[in-house]
Specification:
By secondary structure, the chain is of the alpha+beta class. It has three domains: 163 residues, ATP-grasp fold, B domain (D-amino Acid Aminotransferase, Chain A, domain 1, 2-Layer Sandwich); 85 residues, 2-Layer Sandwich (Dna Ligase, domain 1), CATH 3.30.1490; 151 residues, 3-Layer(aba) Sandwich (Rossmann fold), CATH 3.40.50. The protein has 13 helices and 18 strands. Strands 7, 8, 9, 10, 11 and 12 form a six-stranded antiparallel sheet that branches.
């Protein structure tokens, strides 16, 4: 589950991670009041206005601006709030901005130059350990830094630093010191970075996060280390242990069809193709999407109805898939293990009749328990539904119907 920057920062702050202070606002008037409060709390003279959406690259899209006074806070907030912010991570449709974070200015003059770094923590599944990724190239697109890093042969010249942490042992103090040293820090900034990394890792583990990305981590001109940004992703499977964090979910940032599917107990992810698919089991769903690709189509979604598919879940799946205007055909691929093929077939027929007019062709491939009985029910239904038993038959039928609608 993704959460907003301001929410992530509050969590980090509760674990002793120093952050760029800020106050969230829903209107230009609230933004001005937030700036006044920040001035009293931190003494800041300038204010950074940040659009709050679940996507990176906000600055390049015009979603991060600096205000030099309260009037500029009002004007900038008025422009950002309600805008459709397009970034490299939102796609061309962008995302509507409903909140802004008014933050303190942390790039103030001092005895040394400010410096930006990159830090992230995530699970490296290849070794079964958490990995801390750090770089001196903070504030930049880390993907570009990593791509350029692959061309550097000398390990000492590489910009990406990785430190793996055994989850059974936890982060050892020497590992935090090692990272701070490799980032080139010294003196008070070195000590601050060590404390920052230790607090960040403690937060990552204890809140059951699946990803932390702090870009940039700032060394201020007076050698403080703080999080200027915070991308925090929480593990959905662990939210039962953190009910207060579950309340941070913002469904306005999620695809409406995915939200609707979750309410029906369906696992749905919208894609950009033209063939909708409904499957029981994640592995079979992946194979089904491969079939669609090999047949000349493009999968329009990932939809897993689970092992206990019935008429209600099939109907809910139909309704969600049909709301995508790009769908030209639907492939239902079900293996009858826990659920019987005839039960699925009856569910398809019943759902078809309940929905009414369905203009796109439907291919139903059944295999396993009572698959033949299910195919007979489909064939005798009189509906625009085609049955298949073998994967190659289903693939051929998908190719046929896709060709007919082009």
């Amino acid at each position: 589950m993704n959460i907003h920057e301001y929410q992530g920062k509050e969590i980090l702050k509760s674990y002793g991670v120093r952050i760029q202070e800020g106050i969230v606002a829903d209107t230009p008037e609230e933004a001005v009041e937030a700036a006044r409060q920040l001035n009293l709390q931190t003494g800041t003279k300038f204010y950074v206005i940040k659009a709050q959406i679940h996507a990176g690259g906000r600055g390049k899209g015009g979603g991060v601006k600096v205000a030099k006074n309260l009037e500029e806070v009002r004007e900038i907030s008025k422009k950002i709030l309600g805008m459709q912010l397009v970034t490299i991570q939102t796609g061309p449709e962008g995302k509507r901005v409903n909140k802004v974070l008014v933050s303190q200015d942390v790039y103030y003059p001092g005895p040394s130059e400010p410096k930006e770094y990159y830090l992230s923590i995530l699970l490296d599944r290849s070794v079964g350990q958490n990995v801390i990724i750090a770089s001196t190239e903070g504030g930049m697109d880390i993907e570009q830094v990593a791509e350029a890093d692959e061309e550097i042969k000398d390990p000492k010249q590489k910009k990406i630093i990785k430190e793996w942490v055994d989850p059974l042992v936890g982060l050892m103090p020497f590992q935090a010191r090692k990272l701070a040293f490799k980032l080139g820090l010294e003196g008070n900034a070195f000590k601050e970075m060590v404390n920052f990394i230790q607090a960040l890792y403690k937060a990552y583990v204890e809140i059951d996060a699946s990803q932390f990305e702090i870009n940039p981590v700032l060394k201020t001109s007076d050698d403080k280390i703080l999080a200027v940004d915070a991308k925090v992703n929480l593990d959905d499977n662990a939210l039962y242990r953190h009910k207060n964090y579950a309340e941070l979910r913002d469904i306005t940032e999620e695809d409406p069809l995915e939200v609707e599917a979750a309410k029906s107990g369906l696992n749905y992810v919208k894609l950009d193709g033209n063939v909708g698919c409904m499957v029981n089991g994640a592995g079979l769903a992946m194979a089904t999407m491969d079939i669609i690709k090999l047949s000349g189509g493009e999968p329009a979604n990932f939809l897993d109805v689970g092992g206990g598919a019935n008429a209600q879940t099939v109907e809910a799946g139909f309704r969600i898939i049909l709301k995508d205007p790009n769908v030209k055909a639907i492939l239902i691929n079900v293996f009858g293990g826990i659920v019987r093929g005839d039960r699925v077939a009856n569910g398809v027929v019943e759902a078809y009749k309940n929905i009414g007019t369905i203009k796109v062709p439907i291919i139903v491939r059944l295999q396993g328990t009572n698959a033949e009985e299910g195919a007979r029910i489909i064939d005798e239904s009189g509906l625009k539904v085609y049955s298949a038993v073998l994967l190659k038959d289903a693939a051929a039928k998908v190719k046929e119907v896709i060709s007919s609608v082009k």
